[in-house]
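name: query_chain
kind: protein
chains: 1
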Amino acid sequence: MSTFDEIPRIVTRAARKTARYALLGTAPDQATGIWFALHGYGQLVPRFIRHFAEVVPPGVCVVAPEGLSRFYVDQPAADGRHLQRVGATWMTRENREDDIADTMLWLDTVFGEIVTMERRTVAVGVLGFSQGVATATRWVVHRGLRPRAFVAWAGSLAHDVDDAALAAALVHARVTLVRGGDDLLMSDAQAEEQRSRLARAAPDTHLLTFAGAHRLDRSVLASLLSQLSPS
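structure:
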């Protein structure tokens, strides 16, 4: 029989976490449309939001929260050199439910700072890229956000989100699935599977394909962001 000391006890406790988000475009208190953009695996918001530079239409603000967990992307060098590239992730499979709950609270906090303080009606869009698509899916359902526009870019919807709940969240949304024609991380079959699920939840779903790999494309972004443009 094992003794008490031989059995590890895993205890979880809530803790405060300092996090960050980036803003681009019109100031939130003057914007008539606000996009929440969720980055992909291994990205940081200062670099992620650069893809939106010069394509945000007047009257629109882009808000890019960063995942709560950062890590070194590079593998350790044999000579012991300090690692350079840092990335962030929304969650891993380890203790995933706590990661999801913390992320939902973080996104709600950002939303409260950006939108609730407005005290007026503002059009909201949500864009998820790669890993950010699953997080975006969970968030619109968790918050009951009902955005004006929802973009799933080169990523899969959260498998643990109920289709009926997703349909309720996207009832007023123009939904777009975006994929690069040369994207090796999302095959044609995977794209069709995600398109079919989105179409079941939101009949007003569009598939948009561009010439490129697993990346954001500025010309496509310009078109999508204009969905919340006041003009």
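note: The mean pLDDT is 91.
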